[in-house]
Amino acid sequence: MTETTPYDADRARFTRQALARLVLCDHAADVADGAAGLVATENDPDTGPGGRVSQAFQLIELAKRALVSAVIYERERGSSWTEIAQYLGIGPADAEERFASNLDGWNTAFEVPYRLDDTGRKRIPQLPTAAYDPARACDRLDTWAGNRLILVNDDRPVSSGLAMAQSEE
Question: What is the pTM of this model?
Answer without folding.
Answer: 0.89
